[in-house]
Amino acid sequence: MSDAHPHVAVAEQFDDAEQQHEAAGLGMWIFLATEIMFFGGLFASYTIYRNLYPAGFLAGSGLLNAKIGAFNTVVLITSSLTMAMAVHSAQLGRRKALIGFLFLTLLLGLTFVGVKLYFEWYHDYLTHVAPGFGFHPEGADLARIHALHAPLSAVELFMCFYFLMTGVHALHMVVGVGILTVLIVKAWRGRITRESHNIVEMAGLYWHFVDIIWIFLFPLLYLLGVTR
After folding, report:
1. In the chain, pLDDT over 90 holds for what percent of residues?
2. Which CATH superfamily is 17-227 part of?
3. Single pTM value for the model
4. Which of 36, 104, 195, 214 is deepest in the core (most CB within 10 A)?
């Protein structure tokens, strides 16, 4: 057992706690690499169809609420800060601060998912712009689509990408919320110490990754009229 981590329980396949820590970090980075390839396929497909149907994607982006998207962006950026503070607190062995920052991160994550579900997806369903549920924009939305000479099929394709990409991202957020819940319980029971903070670091890497994915999704989906 390493002197740097004198109270860490070392699994039998490792020589010491330092090797276990490095293996956990390597495993997480490999996992994140597979996630990058997964999202990379989505981004590549989106880019191809966006170039094929620019007017339809521009019109589809106009159906989204950029202000709500910006609000959720701020929520996630703030959650990255609180997650970083949780990791720092774990490294210093500050149990109460760790629990507090993990709880704040959890609340911000739930806020993001709640806003996405109620103020965006449910609203899209009510206004008939959710694909697969009788897609037929009305009123100002339909007028904007006609003004851009965008085929409705191309606009619906954009919304398919929107729901797929944000849905997969939201699923990752839900997984992150579950991880945070487990960490809070473990910290509350005193099972996360200064010597065993590695688990919080790995959770932090995952959380920051999910936040970064949203940083790419926000302009790609919400700001086409600005970035065009």
Report:
1. 81
2. Cytochrome c oxidase, subunit III, four-helix bundle (1.20.120.80)
3. 0.91
4. 214
